[in-house]
Amino acid sequence: xxxxxxxxxFRVLKTGQxxxxxxxxxxxxxxxxxxxxxxxxxxxLIHYSVGEGTTAKGEVPDGYxxxxxxxxxxxxxxxxxxxxxxxxxxxxxxxxxxxxHFGDGTRLSIL
Amino acid sequence: xxxVTQIPAALSVPEGENLVLNCSxxxxxxxxxxxxxxxxxxxxxxxxxxxxxxxxxxxxRLNASLDKSSGRSTLYIAASQPGDSATYLCAVGVDxxxxxGKGTRLHILP
Lengths: 111, 110
Hints:
The structure holds 2 protein chains of 2 kinds. In chain A, 0% of the residues lie in helices and 52% in strands. Chain A is mostly beta strands. In chain A, strands 2, 4, 5, 6, 9, 10 and 11 form a 7-stranded mixed β-sheet that branches. In chain A, strands 1-3-8-7 form a 4-stranded antiparallel β-sheet, with no helix packed on it. In chain B, strands 2, 4, 5, 9, 10 and 11 form a 6-stranded mixed β-sheet that branches. Chain B has a 5-stranded antiparallel β-sheet with strand order 1-3-8-7-6, with no helix packed on it. Chain B has strands at 4-7, 10-14, 19-25, 32-38, 44-51, 56-59, 62-67, 72-77, 86-94, 97-100, 104-109. Chain B is mainly beta.
């Protein structure tokens, strides 16, 4: 079973560039989440979705947008990347509230 | 605002010892509490999930307890092994989300 798959695994961007991170889950889960993990800050929730077509803001949503057009996919977009967005991004999914299944992460560097 | 604290931030113990990791949270209005394991460069793996109505959960050599009224949870690891070396994260379930502590980095010395 693939579980939660994140694409890409690594990426280097220049300040001002845009990109989209893709999260795909094959478990038919309703809930999906995007977190960022930074040294000394722990995991912080960016955005989440409680079902297809829904999105909601988390703790640190500024500078990010999300879309959940299909139940199995949750996209995280950076419209104009900034060095402060250098981080490891994790996607998670769950059949109900409180995420339990995490992807392996996307390591993003903004120069 | 809910805050989750894990002490210590790092811990080294000899192989074979039993050990306890601590987690505290400021607001007792939680749905559940989870313990996760994270290996370097990897994602999180859920180890144990304790619902708010439960006191403990066990899986193999792991036992997690929850005292909601005092805002505390412990993760007990019996007969530690070098393969247990990882970062352990505590997270409390609030509404549709979970809030993480910053983790305890555990190193088991062979």
